[in-house]
Amino acid sequence: MRTRTRPSRRFAALAVVATLAAGALAGCASDDAPPDSAAGADSASSGGAVGGKGKTTLTVGVFGAFGLQEAGLYDQYMKQHPDVVIKQTSIERNENYYPQLLTHLGSGSGLADIQAVEVANIAEVTATQSGKLVDLGKAPGVRKDSFVPWKWAQSTTGEGRTIGLGTDIGPEAICYRKDLFARAGLPTDRAEVGKLWAGDWGKYLAAGKTFKAKAPRGTAFVDSASGVLAAITGSSAERYYDRDGKVVYKTNLAVKGAWDEAAAFAKEGLTAKLQQFTPSWDQGFANSTFATVSCPPWMLGYIQDKAGAAGKDKWDVAAAPKPGNWGGAFLTVPEAGRNKEAAAKLAAWLTAPEQQAVLFEKRGSFPSSQAAYALPAVSGAKHPYFGNAPIGQIFTRAAQGVPVQILGPKDGIIAQNLADVGMLQVDQKGTSSKDGWNAAVKAIDNALDQ
C-alpha cells in the first residue's frame, strides 16, 4: 500500500513543475532533489552551529525541494544579514522525513534550527509536540493578521501557542477543458463555467450529466470519483475528527454526504475511472480523457507538463463549487535548537508577505499570507497556458473562503483509505457504495488499531 496521503502527494506533482516556473508562474518544488552537501547535513545534526569568521550558521530541514532555496530566499537573507550562513538539508519524501522529525523531537537532538512540517502532519505535531517547539506567534515581526485565519489556526494549540508559521497553501479551483465543454454544449467562459456549479457540489454533478449527454467519444467529465471525494471533504469545516479530537468520520454527515456525492459520479458514468498520480492518470491529460479536475495552484504546472503543447489554451481555470484546500506546509523552530532567537527571526522573514509573493512568482507556491494578495506578483498573476487566466485573483478568492477546518492526527490515513481503498473500488470495479464504504472503514480501523 502506498503511504503518501493526498496532501503530501503534492510533492509528486511538484517534480514536474519547477522547470515551468519562469515563464508561466506555474512552477513549484520537486521532491526528487538530492540533499545538500555533507557540510549542511553536519550542521543540521548539530542543531545549528557558529560558522567561520564569527558567522552564525542556521540550518533548515525540509522534505523535497521545498522552494525556499530554489527561489533564492536564503541568498537574499544572507545578503541582508552578512553575519548569517544558512544551510539546508532535504530528505526526498515526507513519509521518510516526518518519522525522523518525530524521533529527533523525542530525543531533543539531531534537529535543524528550523524544521518544516507538512500540512498532513501539523495537527499531530501541534497536539503532541507543541512543548518542544517555540511559540512563533510571539516572535518579533510575526503578525497573526498577515495570515489567512484558517492557516494560522492549523498550527495553534488550544492554549493559544502557535508553533508553526505557514508557508504555502493549496486553495482549490476547477481546471477544465474549454474545447470539450464547447463540444458538449456547455459554456467556456471561466466566469460562466463557475456559475454552473457555484455554491453546490450537487450542481457540479448536474453539469457532469449535461456534459455526458453530448460528450465527445472517449471523454469523461471528471478524472476520478476519489478526486471528487477529496475535493468535497476538503471544503468542509468538520471532516474526520470533532473539536474534542474524537474520530467521527463514520457518523459525520458531511463526510457521508461527500461519499454519496462522489459515488454518484461513478454510478452515473461521469468519471474516467483513474487513480490520481499514476501513469494512466498522467496519460489522461495528454489524451484528453477527462474534462475537469480539482485544481490547486501547484497543479497548473503539472497539467501543463502532462498535457503538453497540445493542451495550451484548451485548459482554463474556474472557481470550485465551494472553496477547499489541498496542500501546504509550515516552518517550526525546535526548543532544543542552539539558535532559537535567530531561527525564529529567519522563519518570520521567510513567511513574511514579501517573501511569500516571491515564492509564488518563482515557484508557484500560493501564499498563506493574506497580506501578500495585494502585492503585484500575486494580484496581477496570469497563466498563459490557461488562456491567461487571472490565477492570482482566482486563488485569492478561494483562499479567503476556505473554512477553518478541524484537523486530526490521522487525517491522512483516513483520507487515503477512503479514496484508495473504498472509492477506488466503487469507481473502477463497480462495487456498491455501501460495500466500498465498509471496505474503507475496515482498512481505517486496522490502520488506527480500532
Describe this structure in words.
- The chain has two domains: 14-170 and 327-386, Periplasmic binding protein-like II (D-Maltodextrin-Binding Protein, domain 2); 173-295 and 410-447, D-Maltodextrin-Binding Protein, domain 2 (3-Layer(aba) Sandwich).
- It has 20 helices and eleven strands.
- It has helices spanning 10-17, 21-24, 38-45, 73-80, 94-107, 119-128, 149-154, 178-183, 190-197, 201-214, 225-233, 253-267, 279-286, 299-307, 340-350, 353-363, 376-379, 391-401, 411-429, 433-447; strands at residues 49-50, 56-63, 84-91, 114-118, 165-171, 173-177, 220-222, 290-295, 315-319, 325-332, 366-367.
- Strands 1, 2, 3, 4, 5, 10 and 11 form a seven-stranded mixed sheet that branches. The chain has a four-stranded mixed sheet with strand order 7-8-6-9.
- The radius of gyration is 21 Å and the shape is globular.
